[in-house]
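Second opinion, please. Pick holes in both lines of this record:
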Amino acid sequence: QVQLVESGGGLVQAGGSLRLSCAASGGTLDDVYTMAWYRQVPEKGREFVAALTWKDGLAITDDSVKGRFTISRDFAKNTMYLEMNNLKPEDTAVYSCAARTRSYGEYDYWGQGTLVTVSS
């Protein structure tokens, strides 16, 4: 059973940067096809941020963060990253990583989330 553990969240001023990590434990990501970052705020629900194919690293990014956020992965470390630059107060959310063994559909594994707070 793969477990995903996020880290790297915290408090940052608007315009600042953070890098989130999502590390796999308790197994490998050999069977994973897609990994993604989502974020959630109470009044808006969960929203998609970015995703990539684990083996090829092909990435897509939501328009709301395009040009500011970059998703990547380190195959050898079984770790996915989200580099966040020029952060805005509206980026404040709990960021969670997810993985699935298919190219579509529901995600099979979720991390517990890490809080990112951007002050104005």
Q: What stands out?
A: The CA atoms of residues 5 and 66 lie 24 Å apart.
